[in-house]
Design a protein that fits this description.
Low-confidence stretches: none
Number of helices: 14
Helix content: 25-40%
Number of strands: 29
Strand content: 15-25%
Radius of gyration: 27 Å
């Protein structure tokens, strides 16, 4: 009997029944089913190890997805996302424990509210491909051949039939998914032309259920409504006219009392760099794609960053033009985070006073009088934020509830009251004029230099002391890179662990391909992102992986900058 088809695979698995688990290695390969090809890429070593890696490829003339469902880049990503969700949902239903450890499981990459380009499902004119994990059945370390045959030959065929063929899906829901994502991408593309950094549509539901549940608040959420003075209108390709609040470029303050929605608005804006599923409530909230949340980050390492725009004349004559430390303070870490962000290409900075260093944000008139400028190394953000926009074109959106000194330098002020926005710019300016602070600006005439840094090749080592590469990720906040842990818990715009796995793979890739002691960090970021754009995320790994998602250069730069072994030269 031929072993390269469905019947051959079934018989082979039955023949393996009760044999040692390692005998599963014999099934690695490709098998033709009537409607698809099953590729077993990697077989796990035992039932407790990471599950086996499989792929299916369905010819497009069988999957039969209309061209209109993937005719643009936006639609293709949306279709892939939809199929990932359908496959994962169905796999969860039909998976059943068949023995020891991971036996019997079928898993696809975990997804949340965001729509991202992922490697789990790929679609083109020729094929639909799905990548997933399977726990091959065993009792102890003995193969359960009959259960394996049911799993690989029956369950996977059912998954293909019910989730990867157009006729099996709800065409109306799929079309809405595709059109929503396309509209969001189109809206985001209009921001720069309209001199906006973000757009929040009327009717959007911004509050989430909790800090650990990103779904929309189920009851009592107040639909968003723009103030008339900030209202803008667009005509989307699919849904047509839409109105909402446009936040212009420049310096924007978000003010208001506690628990009235300031941070909720900021959170919606910071996640607006991504598209969301139609039921999210924020599916048409869009933000400039190069907007980055920055904060203080006590204890982080910093390597060779020029923080002199903000900090000079440290005690003991320590340099701030090539500042390095393994234990940054609140102010030095926030200064480094801002300079690194601009170096990497951020065009909008998002700041919440709750996570900022107070002495970095403001130095009021009384403190200026008590501590002379020549005895204070920190130039506060309030005195640099206008220059940041004027000299470098970087806009800032700042949530501020504790200091009215920022009224003097803000272009506009938005007050949140009971989760609704009000334009209070005129009132804020009137207050600033009536109650002058008397403080003197300490920022000088220019923002300062953003220096280009070159990575020293021997400071990036993904090996664990041997030749083998050792890279692991933990949720969305940490990467183990060789012998070092990269703490990304303060890098707040990584949405899924699949993005972090792709960033980890990119760190290994850029070390192998581009870190040569000649290219700058920015040049390396340019080349890696160009490779991903041209060749897809598969360029980052030796074999096809199903658990990677697209990331931004800003988060890749953040991971590099937080590697404690990093060494650079100017």
């Amino acid at each position: 009997m031929k072993r390269d088809n469905a019947a051959g695979l079934r018989q082979q698995l039955i023949d393996l029944d009760r044999r040692s688990y390692k005998a599963y290695k014999d099934i690695q390969g490709s098998y033709k089913f009537p409607d698809f090809t099953l590729i077993i890429e990697h077989v796990q070593g035992d039932p407790f190890a990471s599950p086996s890696k499989l792929r299916v490829k369905i010819p497009q003339n069988i999957a039969d997805f209309p061209k209109k469902t993937y005719s643009s880049a936006s639609r293709e990503v949306a279709l892939r996302d939809y199929l990932t969700r359908e496959f994962r949902k169905k796999a969860h239903k039909i998976s059943s424990r068949r023995g020891t450890g991971n036996s019997g499981t079928i898993e696809m990459v975990r997804v949340g509210q965001t729509v991202l380009p992922r490697t789990a499902v790929n679609v083109d004119d020729d094929y639909v491909e799905a990548r997933f994990l399977v726990g091959l059945p065993a009792q102890g370390r003995r193969i359960l051949g009959k259960q394996a045959a049911e799993l690989l030959c029956d369950d996977i065929a059912e998954l293909v039939d019910e989730t990867l063929k157009y006729d099996a899906l709800d065409a109306e829901i799929l079309q809405k998914h595709v059109e929503t994502v396309e509209d969001a991408d189109w809206l985001r593309s209009q921001l720069e032309e309209q001199n906006l950094v973000a757009f929040i549509p009327n009717g959007a539901i911004l509050p989430r259920r909790s800090g650990v549940d990103d779904r929309p608040l189920a009851e009592g959420a107040i639909p968003f409504q723009s103030p008339e003075s900030l209202k803008v209108e667009f005509t989307c390709p699919n849904r047509g006219p839409i109105e909402g609040m446009g936040i212009p470029t420049g310096i924007t303050l978000v003010v208001g009392g506690g628990y009235h929605g300031k941070s909720t608005l900021l959170n919606a804006i910071e996640t607006g760099i991504y598209n969301h599923i139609p039921s999210d409530g924020r599916e048409l909230v869009v933000t400039h794609p190069d907007a980055l949340k920055v904060r203080a980050e006590d204890g982080r390492s910093v390597s060779g960053v020029d923080i002199s725009p903000f900090i000079n004349d440290l005690p003991q004559g320590r340099s701030t033009t090539q500042f390095s430390t393994t234990n940054a303070s609140g102010s030095t870490s926030q200064a480094a985070n801002i300079v690194e962000a601009v170096e990497a290409g951020a065009k909008v900075l998002l700041v919440d006073e709750d996570t900022a260093a107070t002495n970095f944000m403001i130095r009021d008139r009384r403190m200026q009088e008590l501590i002379a400028k020549n005895k204070e190394p920190i130039t506060p953000f309030i005195d640099k934020v206008r220059l940041l926009y004027q000299d470098l074109g970087v806009s800032v959106l700042l949530v501020m509830g504790g200091s009215g000194d920022y009224f003097d330098i803000a272009d506009r002020a938005i007050a949140m009251e009971n989760f609704l926005p009000y334009d209070v710019t005129d009132r804020a300016k009137a207050i600033a004029a009536e109650y002058a602070t008397g403080r003197e600006s300490e920022g000088g005439e220019m923002f300062g230099k953003i220096s280009s840094r070159i990575i020293q090749p021997n400071s990036l080592d993904p090996s664990s002391g041997k030749r083998d590469v050792k890279v692991k990720v933990r949720d969305v906040d940490a990467i183990s890179f060789g012998k070092e842990d990269i703490d990304l818990s303060s890098v707040e715009q990584i949405a899924e662990s699949s993005q972090l796995r792709a960033i980890a793979a990119a760190l290994v890739y850029l070390k192998q391909e581009y870190v040569n002691g000649k290219l700058s960090l920015v040049e390396i970021l340019d080349r890696v992102m160009a490779d991903v754009q041209e060749q897809g995320l598969d360029v980052l790994t030796r074999f096809p992986e199903g658990d990677l998602a697209e990331f931004r250069r800003l988060e890749l730069a953040a991971a590099i900058n937080r590697l404690r072994t990093l060494q650079v030269r100017i």
